[in-house]
Design a protein that fits this description.
polysaccharide degradation, glycosidase, six-stranded antiparallel beta sheet, alpha+beta, cellulase activity, disordered N terminus, Glyco_hydro_7_sf, disordered C terminus, globular, 9 helices, 485 residues
Length: 485
């Protein structure tokens, strides 16, 4: 997912320095030319005992999408690459010389209503379609800080409609261990309320990091959990581990892909790539021509929030039926996992996939520690002129041909690409989704009359003897979901 950040920064570096709250003469005020009005986006926190409670959360876009200009001349950009040495010779001077404006969210392809947000890749300006490639973060109810996602021994559910996303597109929902304040400081008082502080496991060397000019060619790093990278043709979920805690910097060879401080490749599950092309796609088991619910469970070794992360389990809900992730694979090494492969991401799975950097940097244990500390939820939509997103949906990873994902082809043949995320819920295992009737978000139709039923993981062969304890937990979660319906 972080590839989007690298591509976007090539066009407009994200300078995040601001003023306006107690930093005296060393900082300019936040710009007033465009007010910042966060789109409301309600979410829910759920427990097995009390059900789901709505939170009045909202969305904020990255400073990358904002006009950042000289304090005395709006026509002079502070967001240049390389950094404008006259405006920004050091952090304090940069904050004094530059102003960051708000955003009209429709202009960057973001439309939020209630508990739903639609992201659009292209907008028509009267002459042609322009790429806006939006990325937004979930803000807490205070509107000042990011909502903390602490998901160890918890689950996250959301509804998604990606029927308008074909080859080469990536409608992504993921977690990043950004500082919850947006790395707010005296020289960056705006913080999360203006979308500052981005980091991920790619450790990109960008001109500005955490609101400060990057004068030492550092990389911006943190643990990253790609819960959902997908279009209608293929999907993958992938944890990426790092050696540091929270948002931190790397330098020199530390930022490299090989033996660096973060795992850039990750350890992912793509059902097409593992040998089951009939599981996910239009009119397939998970029918991507219609909305459905995605459930991701972060299970621990002792089924407590203090245990070690042992498994990341994926379930789908469509037409009231719970669909465990397929355990079908033609991958020889995955097929040799002791006890059998059950369609879930475990340490044994990552060993079988030879995810060496992921394992070197602590594997699931490290990912679980990050989930305990708290991560930020991110939504984005992007495509890739460099590789046409073939790592997601082409070659052995999906049904798309070598050039189908070319952005030039996409904008010429189907520019109205979009993804809609809705009904984001997180909480106790089994508390965020329903089975046997309408899904929790009401995206899929009730299936009681149509013969839909809650599918136990064991019914599809998804739970092996090696995971009996964990499988019991998931099975109970599915049963609980059916009762809640």
């Amino acid at each position: 997912m972080a590839s989007f950040f690298k591509l976007a920064t090539a066009a407009l570096p994200s300078l995040l320095l601001l003023s306006g709250s107690g930093s005296g003469v060393d900082a300019q005020k936040i710009g007033t030319a465009v007010p910042e009005v966060h789109p409301k986006f309600a979410t829910q926190v759920c427990t097995t005992a009390g059900g789901c409670v709505t939170k009045q959360t909202s969305l904020v876009t990255d400073a990358l999408s904002r006009h950042f200009h000289a304090a005395d001349d709006m026509s002079v950009s502070c967001a240049t690459n390389p950094i404008n040495a006259t405006l920004c010779p050091d952090a304090a001077t940069c904050a004094r010389n530059c102003v960051l404006e708000g955003v009209e969210y429709g202009s960057i392809g973001v439309l939020a209503k209630g508990s739903s947000v639609t992201l659009r890749q292209y907008l028509f300006d009267g002459a042609e379609f322009k790429s806006v490639s939006p990325r937004v973060y979930l803000l807490a109810e205070d509107g000042l800080n990011y909502e903390p996602m602490r998901l160890l021994n918890q689950e996250l559910s959301f509804d998604v409609d990606l029927s308008q996303l074909g080859c080469g597109m990536n409608g992504a929902l993921y977690l990043s261990e950004m500082d919850l304040s947006g790395s707010r400081s005296d020289l960056n008082p705006a913080g999360a309320q203006y979308g500052t502080g981005y980091c991920d496991a790619q450790c990109f060397t960008v001109p500005f990091i955490n609101g400060l000019p990057n004068l030492n060619s550092s990389g911006s790093c943190c643990n990253e959990m790609d819960i959902w990278e997908a279009n209608s043709q293929a999907t993958v979920y992938t944890p990426h581990t790092c050696s540091g805690v929270g948002s931190f910097l790397c330098s020199g060879t530390e930022c490299n892909k090989t033996v660096g401080v973060c795992d850039k490749d990750g350890c992912g599950i793509n059902t097409f790539g593992l040998g089951n092309p009939s599981f996910y796609g239009p009119s397939l088991t998970v029918d991507t021509s219609r909305p459905f619910t995605v459930v991701t469970q972060f299970l621990t070794s002792d089924n407590t929030s203090t245990g070690v992360l042992s498994e990341i389990r994926r379930l789908y809900v469509q037409d009231g039926t719970v669909i465990p992730n397929t355990a079908t694979t033609t991958n020889v090494n995955v097929g040799k996992i002791e006890g059998g492969y059950d369609g879930t991401l475990t340490q044994d799975y990552c060993v079988a996939r030879n995810s060496s950097d992921f394992l070197r940097l602590g594997g699931l244990k490290t990912m679980g520690e990050s989930l305990t500390r708290g991560m930020v939820l991110i939504f984005s939509l992007w495509n890739s002129p460099g590789d046409f997103m073939s790592w997601l949906d082409g070659g052995n990873n999906g049904p798309c041909n070598a050039t189908a994902g070319d952005p030039k082809t996409i904008v010429a043949t189907k520019p109205d690409v979009s993804v809609t995320f809705s009904n984001v819920r997180w909480g106790d295992i089994g508390s965020t989704f329903k089975a046997g009737a309408a899904t929790a978000g009401g995206v899929a139709a009730a299936a009681a009359e149509a013969g839909g039923k809650a599918v136990q993981p064991s019914e599809s062969g998804a739970v092996s003897g090696r995971h009996t304890a964990v499988g019991t937990v998931v099975g109970l979660a599915v049963m609980l979901g059916a009762l809640l319906a």
